[in-house]
Design goal:
alpha+beta; six-stranded antiparallel beta sheet
Length: 1904
């Protein structure tokens, strides 16, 4: 029918259309359906069946020309049939009707659902869905749950996490194969199948008839749609076909959701072979069906598949073939021929580019695997559906449908088998696909559901040869990209490797197949079969060998490589995923003795593969120079299985080891890697570019190390334990190219290494030996010990967070192996070795995470430098660990100096590896150690401390691991005389240490100092003393040469190799190359080498003692400790030796040597006596001596330092005072004036650019560095204490009507409705939203200096996140962000003092003065007419201030651009800054003067700038409110008379604080103190009256009349004007004349507060009403006149402030119950002026009583602004918001975010909400915060700050249980609110310091 639908869409008007009933007659359909259902229900239903078939033929006909479908819609539209969708709709309608059998379709669905035995959830999801995984409940590591099932189950305390699905998945709730039943959710706990009734037969009867046709139709349509053109069909065509099929597939999907009953019908239909045969065979007379079948065959053929008609079919589907198709005998024969070259495969034609170059390798044909690769026979709908699903590259809808069916058990098995059958075809399609990523995800989406189930995997493995298929398919896949290996012998190599540059590897295309393989190997039963099947193991090793030696690096010797290939990452990923992970999977099943056989199998085939590899690359004994590959998976397989065999299976190691010759070959390549690592770190590979460093780092990186470097080192340890130690040691030094360096001579020639690399290569070689000998990872440590060692190493490098530790500690990559991250052993080890440091928050500090830091005893006993070196990716980490160790020792007082890495005791070796220690007891090593000690003592070739450290480490290791004590006596017989033939008598280090070596013959260049002939006389002076003094070993005559020792490492090694080879093979002469390779002989150009003989006469012990002297810088510093304290010998573990430097190390070694043998003890004592005459034992140990010595030197150093510091301090002090909050005098008035200095001094400023200081002048003004920003913080104040919560359900929405900004807006628009516009704009302040806040860092600069600074910034192209064009810069001194300069007003300081002297004028005079001064325009020291620099700057800064905020926040007037607007804006800027400072002080002034805000305030300068501009607009004296406040107006009536004009705003409606600012800014600056006080007094009378009016409106009618009465009685008392009762009664009586109190209908009464007002509560109300004004005024006074603010208790704030402002006469303060009215000082008789004010109100309320009342009640008590309150657990936010839809496009946004200021839900970067190129977040930040936005990104848990045109990631306020952020919710652990962090965020928002504190800003280009 799908076909029908789409077909109808295309060519609608075919004949079948005519036979259909008319489309509109739904009744007919229902009737027909009912009739058919009845017919079919009869016992003899053939007639009904035929009728139905005929109908379906018609409805679901596929006879439509499909060519049109591909051509596009024009054809579709042209065809009739009511346009494209009609016929489809029609067919679907028919199907629904028929299924329902005449009833309603919805009722039918409900009926079927009732029979759903929903034991499984099975919800299928696609990529990006949020799901959960609980490791505690999971049996399979892939287990996942949908959010609903997870939250309904009980997982408290479990190890779970939330994750975003990468490929899609399905919910496993209810499936006990995958998870434990305890984790099931409430819905799926009930095994419900029992109580579900049986499905009635007739319910689904129609479905059984209709669905086969429907599905067949779909298949036909898929066949038609797939045109197999010459080239691969384009994506577009496929997608078009799929789009047309969308409704059909959705219909099927809906059917699956009807529950189990319908699913079982579908299963029957999909798997019924008879149905399929009848419908699809194409044998009928129906031409359409024939054509369709042909298309199907063509598609099969073009896919390189055969359709077996008559031929015998290989037994994939034939149950008779019980044995493996790849019969083992077939394999046995095949092993020899695997790997022949044969390119007969038709696949080659696809990728034939470059066939000439690349010989492809084919598996020989007799493996019978053609059946796997090329044969497909479809026997049911399901099989063909899957075929097309693959052909169409796994369309999402189809995948979902196929997966939705999985809860049906029968289907699950059938589908799994079908999937396996198509496995090869899947691989071929994947390789060709353009969208391999998407396709990979879809494949895994399916396969993970099938293969995670052990039972199912086992069944398919047994019945369908799953393992054979997988291995063969992988092998085939890799074969397409093989190239010839260039390792070793380039010409004749037969080995092939994968080419890492090919897309297959580069894009990780093999990933789905490999991941399936790993998945099935995690099941024990399947892995067992794999390990038992020899044929499979051979094939697998063959597969692994494709990776052996891939990505070969050749060292560039001449010029830098042109193109740095980045393929190395593909190579590492391929080895890890395709080789190592399956290996770990197999290893996890080899844990017990019973599995020995498996290990033997793997080891056997691994060795065979290795032998083949050595033969193929033609390897004999020398690796090719200058090349290295990091990829040796065969070696690593071998190593890991060996390790497992010894550790877990108790196998005898020797039984699985090969012969010596093979061991020698095995060790070469891993050793080559270790040497190359040292070369890379010595910069010998620089010409290969950075990528080679990348490889060296990846090799040891935590995710790779246990599959790479660890097995390599272990393999080398195994080889070393079984090979001849001398051979091994000499090989090491030869590989590291430092053989030539190991000579006694002071000069040498190195033919293979440049001099500058020698030292680091020698360090490398010794370090490698130390690691090799002391690492015990695979040599006997238990898992817990390994975990502990790894953890200690990581923690020693740096403090780590919990998650980075989990990440850094290598765990076996297979999840089923021992250590799962987060498992109990991890946590218990962590708590044993580390302390948790909770995150600290200094405001303004960086956001720290919770960290773990090593415990003290870990530093003391467990710090292991060897492990640290092994695990560091960056060399600096080793240094970091040492620095931390040093710091610990200093802190704990264990060692003051620079310590050496401590020597750590090792865990005991497993007995199988005892041979490893023979390396420490071989002569070769002893000679090397002796030579190096000698060279260090003689200062040859500046060998580093590191070399000495490693030499001593090796000696110490040798002493710790010496053979059993040799008897001293017998050893003493062989004195120095008998040892001419070789260096040392035996191989035991203990005895060799004391052996004296007299003469050594060396080869030296003729230029060397040794060759100079000395007179024989001096030859005899061979006492130790002279040797010490001259430091030049004397050269003896040639004839002595017989006695000297000659030693050549290379020769020794060659000889050993020869012996071994001769032993092991008869035809040795063919194997060994006769010529010694010439690279060891010196090139001719160099000076000739001659032989010289050195006289040495030292032993290792004597060298050590002399070294002690050398290190301590004193002669005879060593004194054997046991001579003082014999105890030491009995109880050797002395803490004083465990930490220290080289001296301590030498002492420790000598002590150990003495302990091991009495002979050594005696010789040490002798040497010490020889060197120094015996002294009486003084109790000063060497260490103490050292400290005494140091003290003298320190003293001198200290004195020098003191001098320097003093100089520096004086310089710094000046910086500190300006930059930091040092309690120094105000920055803007640095010079304090004292009475002793009467002369007038100007304020002096330092310019931080040119460094000069001086006053600010009109010509060269100085300015403050300021940051202007628009702010809406004030507007966010609310009037209720209860904080707003972030909405987390649909009901909780936040409405902003109660914010300060909203209330002020309403008030202004109300005034503007009834009063004159210009007067309205003086009655309020704006700037609650978008007000301009000015802040400074306190530094000043010349404005001309600033301009040149900006120029230089503009030319400097490296801009750091700010835009110079917008005037942004950073303060040159403290680097604080700024964007303008505020000019400092020139003027003297004393002026301030003069102006502050109190005058005795009375208030009336002052009022007059104020009025006159306001009237005088521009009475300024600076006249505006003359354009000075200063006035220009003032103008420009005013422009800046205006441009800081948006136009809508400046223009409130009805006539745009009117001067009133600017006037209003300017005084509002002052208001904004004062209000914000008040908020920064916590909303009141109780704390007094001490506040950081005050320190850096620029209000004084700002006032000057504002005042200058305000004076340009003189207010018409008619309208000046000052008149109304201070004079009684006579002609009252005239004003009311002119009705047509809007009246002025009544004075009682004015905002008093605004009036204050207007009055003050209109005065000439600087202001006199008594004028200021006068203005405040006058305004206070108005404020107090407003308070009384508001109070009168608030109270009830009865209260009013009562007060009116009581007040009237006292009216004539002397203090009447200062009694609030009298005044209140007067106000009430005056206002009663108007209609203010009248229109109180009944509804109003409810609003009136029922409380009775007592005198106290009235007083409190009045004080609270007046307080905000007093606070602002006090702040203003503080800034203008520099007076300190007094601190006080909260309850006395009113009285303290009023007396500080001079409102309260001083004698009043004694009175106890403080009365606010006592502050009043009326300028004119109180009752007159009040009645005048009330008259205006009455006039207004005549007409508008309601509004009149509303305007009187001003709510002025705002609470501090807060961000929204967040819930405790992040999950509550996440679950609500991450599914919430966008209000614009109703889709779920990709990056949802929520504003933390107002709770608005926004789409980050969402295009749907974009308006004029502004994305929604940026837009919202402008509307909500005037350019500042704080958003919580829902999917990342991170907070992002938008500030203007920049943004930054702030961090997260939600942390997990370990105090860590989880950005992007990658770990998905539960997150909890961190209150401290949220406080810090809120603090930064309120104090506007985002710009200063957060460092990483970038432009957002309006795209957020």
């Amino acid at each position: 029918m799908a076909a029908a639908a789409a077909a109808a869409a295309v060519g609608g008007s075919q004949s079948p259309q005519a036979e259909l009933p008319a489309p509109g007659l739904a009744l007919d359909k229902a009737a027909t359906a009912a009739h058919l259902k009845a017919a079919l229900s009869r016992p003899d239903n053939r007639a009904g069946a035929e009728e139905l078939q005929a109908l379906l033929e018609r409805v679901l006909s596929a006879e439509r020309p499909l060519a049109a479908a591909a051509d596009g819609e024009e054809a579709a539209a042209a065809g009739g049939g009511g346009g494209p969708g009609a016929a489809e709709e029609e067919a679907l309608e028919w199907c629904k009707c028929l299924l329902a059998g005449g009833g309603g379709y919805d009722e039918f669905c409900a009926a079927v659902r009732a029979y759903d035995p929903a034991a499984l959830c099975g919800l299928v999801w696609t990529a990006n869905f949020v799901a959960y995984r609980c490791r505690t409940c999971g049996i399979s590591p892939c287990m996942s749950l949908c959010a609903e099932c997870f939250h309904q189950g009980d997982h408290t305390g479990h190890d779970f996490n939330m994750f975003r699905s990468q490929a899609g998945g399905a919910c496993d709730c209810g499936d006990s194969n995958v998870m434990r039943e305890s984790g099931f959710c409430k819905r799926h706990q009930i095994k419900s199948s029992s109580n579900i009734p049986c499905v009635p037969k007739d319910l689904l009867m129609m479905s059984e008839f209709v669905l086969p046709r429907f599905i067949f139709c779909l298949i036909q349509y898929l066949r038609e749609g797939y045109n197999e053109p010459a080239d691969v069909p384009s994506e577009k065509d496929l997608n078009k076909v799929l789009q047309l099929l969308e409704p059909q597939i959705s219909f099927l999907e809906d059917l699956t959701k009807m529950g189990g009953a319908m699913r079982s019908v579908l299963t029957q239909v999909l798997t019924n072979q008879q149905n399929y045969k009848d419908l699809t065979s194409g044998l009928g007379e129906n031409a359409c069906a024939k054509k369709s079948h042909e298309k199907y065959l063509i598609a099969l053929k073009s896919s390189g598949l055969t359709y077996p008609e008559d031929k015998l079919v290989y037994g994939i589907q034939e149950p008779s073939a019980g044995t493996s198709t790849l019969a083992v005998q077939g394999f046995a024969g095949a092993t020899g021929t695997l790997g022949q070259l044969d390119s007969s495969d038709e696949e080659d034609q696809d990728g034939s580019q470059g066939l000439g170059k690349r010989k492809r390798v084919k598996l020989s044909s007799n493996t019978k695997d053609q059946s796997i690769m090329d044969v497909l026979k479809h026997k049911s709908f399901l099989e063909e559906l899957l075929f097309w699903t693959i052909k169409y590259e796994f369309p999402q809808k189809m995948v979902t449908f196929l997966l939705n069916m999985l809860p049906d058990q029968e289907y699950k098995v059938a589908f799994t088998k079908t999937f396996v059958q198509h496995y090869a075809f899947i691989m071929k399609t994947l390789k060709k696909s353009h969208e391999s990523d998407t396709m990979s995800n879809r494949i895994v989406h399916i396969s993970v559901q099938l293969f995670s189930n052990e039972e199912l995997a086992r069944q398919v493995t047994e019945e369908c040869q799953l393992l054979d298929i997988m291995v063969t398919v992988l092998l085939y896949m890799m074969e397409s990209c093989l190239i010839k290996s260039e390792l070793q012998d380039e010409e004749n190599s037969l080995h092939v490797v994968v080419n890492c540059g090919e897309a297959l590897l580069k894009n990780n295309t093999y990933w789905p197949l490999v991941s399936d393989f790993i998945n099935i190997l995690s099941h024990q039963s399947v892995a067992k079969r794999f390990l038992e099947d020899h044929g499979l193991l051979v094939t697998w090793m063959n597969f692994v060998s494709f990776f052996q030696g891939m990505n070969l690096n050749k060292r560039e010797l001449n010029e830098h490589v042109e193109f740095e290939s980045q393929t190395y990452y593909a190579a590492f990923a391929a080895e890890l995923e395709a080789c190592a992970q399956p290996m770990w999977g197999l290893l996890s099943h080899c844990k017990v003795r019973e599995t020995q056989e498996y290990t033997r199998n793997v080891v056997r085939y691994c060795l065979e593969a290795l032998q083949d590899w050595f033969d193929a690359i033609n390897f004999v004994d020398e690796p090719a120079p200058n090349q290295v590959t990091f990829h040796l998976p065969l070696h690593r397989y071998y190593a890991m299985f060996l390790s497992k065999a010894v550790k877990c299976q108790e196998l005898d190691l020797d039984s699985v080891l090969p012969d010596q010759e093979m061991l020698m070959k095995l060790m070469i390549h891993p050793l080559q890697i270790q040497a190359s690592l040292a070369e890379i770190h010595s910069n010998m590979w620089v010409r290969n570019g950075l990528q080679i460093k990348g490889q060296a780092m990846t090799y040891v990186q935590s995710h790779f190390c246990n599959s790479m470097i660890d097995p390599d080192i272990y393999l080398l340890q195994v080889c070393a334990s079984r090979l001849d130690p001398d051979y091994f040691i000499s090989s090491v030094f030869e590989r590291f190219k430092v053989v030539d360096l190991l000579t006694m001579a002071s000069q040498h020639q190195n033919t293979v290494l440049d001099a500058e690399h020698e030292r680091s290569m020698l360090e490398g070689a010794l370090t490698f030996l130390v690691i090799l000998l002391s690492l015990r990872l695979h040599l006997g440590m238990s898992d817990d010990e390994i975990l502990r060692a790894e953890m200690v190493a990581q923690l020693c490098m740096n403090d780590r967070t919990h998650s980075s530790l989990l990440d850094l500690i290598p765990e076996n990559p297979n999840p089923k192996s021992g250590i799962i991250p987060g498992s109990y052993s991890f946590e218990s080890v962590l708590s044993a070795v580390a302390d948790f440091k909770a995150p600290v928050f200094e405001p303004g500090g960086s956001m720290q995470q919770g960290m773990y830091t090593p415990k003290a005893e870990v530093w003391d006993q467990e710090f292991d430098p060897v492990m640290v070196i092994l695990r560091t990716v960056y060399r600096r980490d080793v240094q970091s660990a040492m620095d931390r160790y040093t710091a610990f020792l200093k802190q704990s007082g264990k060692f003051p100096g620079n310590p050496w890495p401590p020597y750590k005791k090792r865990t005991p070796l497993h007995p199988s590896y005892k041979g490893l220690m023979r390396l420490l007891h071989c002569k070769t090593l002893h000679i090397v150690l002796f030579t190096l000690l000698y060279k260090i003592l003689m200062d040859h070739q500046n060998l580093s401390e590191h070399v000495l450290c490693m030499v001593l480490y090796l000696i110490e290791l040798g002493l710790e691991n010496s053979a059993e004590e040799e008897s001293d006596e017998e050893a003493s017989v062989c004195g120095p005389e008998r040892c001419h033939d070789s260096w040392f008598p035996g191989s035991n280090l203990v005895s060799n240490m004391r052996h004296f070596i007299n003469y050594v013959r060396v080869r030296v260049p003729e230029t060397a100092p040794e060759v100079k002939r000395d007179s024989p006389a001096s030859t005899s002076s061979d006492s130790l003393g002279s040797l010490q003094s001259s430091r030049r070993p004397k050269v003896l005559q040639r004839e002595n040469s017989g006695t000297a020792q000659v030693f050549s490492l290379v020769a020794e090694r060659r000889k050993k190799f020869q012996e071994i080879i001769n032993r092991s093979s008869s035809e040795a002469n063919q194997v060994v190359r006769p010529k010694t390779s010439n690279k060891w002989s010196a090139p001719g150009s160099a000076p000739q080498l001659t032989t010289a003989i050195l006289e040495i006469k030292e032993s290792i012990l004597s060298l050590l003692i002399k070294l002690h002297h050398k290190l301590s810088g004193k002669q005879n510093s060593y004194y054997p400790a046991w001579l003082d304290d014999i105890e030491i010998l009995i109880q050797p573990e002395i803490p004083k030796y465990s930490h220290g430097d080289g001296i301590t190390a030498v002492e420790r070694i000598l002590l150990k040597a003495a302990l091991q043998s009495r002979m050594n003890k005696r010789i040490i004592e002798e040497i010490c006596r020889k060197v120094t005459p015996p002294v009486p034992p003084k109790k000063v140990t060497a260490a103490e001596k050292k400290t005494l010595d140091k003290e003298e030197r320190r003293q001198k150093a200290r004195e020098r330092q003191q001098k320097l510091l003093a100089e520096f301090a004086s310089r710094q002090k000046s910086f500190m005072e300006t930059a930091m909050d040092v309690d120094s005098p105000e920055n803007d008035i640095p010079m304090e004036i004292t009475a002793a200095e009467p002369q007038i001094s100007e304020a002096v400023y330092d310019c931080v650019i040119c460094g000069q200081s001086g006053p600010s002048s009109e010509d060269r003004p100085t300015g403050l560095v300021v940051l202007l920003q628009a702010s809406s913080v004030l507007g966010q104040c609310r009037d209720n204490i209860e904080p707003k919560k972030l909405p987390i359900t649909e009901e909780e929405q936040i409405y902003p009507w109660d914010t300060c900004a909203a209330v002020h807006d309403v008030r202004l628009s109300l005034l503007q409705r009834y009063f004159k516009d210009s007067s309205c704009l003086l009655a309020v302040s704006i700037g609650w939203e978008g007000g301009v806040y000015v802040q400074t860092c306190g530094h000043t600069l010349h404005i001309d200096c600033h301009k040149s600074y900006m120029e230089s910034l503009r030319n400097d192209q490296v801009l750091q996140g700010f835009s110079v064009d917008k005037g942004e810069f950073t303060c040159p001194l403290c680097r604080q962000f700024a964007n303008s300069v505020l000019p400092c007003y020139p003027g003297s300081n004393v002026e301030n003092n003069l102006w502050q002297r109190p005058s005795n004028k009375n208030i009336q005079d002052l009022i007059k003065e104020v009025e006159e001064l306001q009237g005088r325009p521009g009475a300024f020291p600076v006249s505006i007419s003359s354009e000075t620099n200063l006035s220009k700057e003032m103008e420009s800064v005013m422009k800046d201030i205006k441009n800081t905020t948006q136009k809508k926040y400046r223009d409130y007037s009805k006539t745009p651009g009117s001067p009133d607007n600017d006037f209003l804006f300017m005084y509002s800027v002052a208001r904004t800054n004062l209000e914000l400072e008040l908020i920064h002080r916590g909303g009141n002034l109780c704390s007094g003067g001490a506040s950081t805000a005050g320190k850096r305030s620029c209000l004084n300068q700002l006032f000057h700038v504002l005042a200058l501009h305000m004076r340009l607009y003189s207010i018409d004296s008619e309208y000046n409110p000052w008149r109304k406040l201070t004079q009684l107006v006579e002609e009252v009536n005239s004003q009311l008379g002119n009705e047509e004009q809007q009246p002025e705003v009544p004075i009682l409606y004015h905002d008093v604080t605004s009036l204050l600012l207007i009055q003050i800014l209109m005065m000439p600056q600087p202001l006199r103190k008594d004028h200021f006080t006068c203005i405040v007094k006058v305004l206070f009378t108005l404020l107090y009256t407003q308070a009384l009016v508001a109070l009168s409106v608030k109270c009830s009618e009865e209260d009013r009349s009562a007060w009116k009465h009581t007040g009237a009685l006292k009216k004539n008392t002397c203090d009447a004007e200062k009694s609030h009762e009298v005044l209140l009664s007067f106000v009430i009586s005056e206002l009663s004349k108007g209609k203010l109190y009248h229109e109180e209908g009944t509804q109003e009464c409810a609003m009136v507060s029922p409380i009775a007002w007592s005198s106290e509560s009235m007083e409190k109300y009045l004080q609270d009403f007046c307080l905000p004004f007093l606070r602002i005024t006090s702040l203003l006074q503080h800034h203008l006149f520099g007076e300190d603010l007094p601190s006080c208790q909260e309850e006395e704030e009113f009285s303290v402030l009023s007396s500080c402002l001079g409102l309260l006469p001083t004698f009043y303060q004694t009175e106890h119950p403080f009365i606010s009215a006592s502050c009043l000082d009326w300028p004119v008789p109180a009752f007159d002026i009040i009645s005048q004010w009330c008259f205006e109100i009455n006039g207004f309320t005549e007409r508008h009583a309601e509004q009149g009342k509303a305007l009187l009640i001003q709510e002025s008590r705002w609470k501090l602004p807060h961000l929204l309150q967040l819930p405790e657990n992040y999950n509550t936010i996440f679950q609500y918001y991450h599914r919430k839809t966008c209000s614009v496009c109703t889709k779920v946004p990709k990056d949802p975010a929520v504003c933390l200021v107002c709770g608005t839900f926004v789409c980050l970067k969402g295009l749907c909400c974009k308006q004029q190129s502004y994305c929604e977040c940026v837009l919202h930040s402008q509307n909500c915060g005037a350019g500042t936005g704080i958003f919580l990104l829902i999917n990342a848990s991170v907070i992002i700050i938008i500030r203007g045109h920049r943004f930054c990631l702030w961090g997260s306020v939600y942390l997990d249980a370990h105090g860590e952020e989880d950005r992007d919710l990658r770990r998905g652990k539960p997150l909890y609110i961190c209150k401290e962090r949220y406080k810090v965020l809120e603090q930064q928002w309120i104090s506007h310091t985002f710009d200063h504190i957060n460092k990483r800003w970038g432009p957002h280009y309006n795209g957020l």
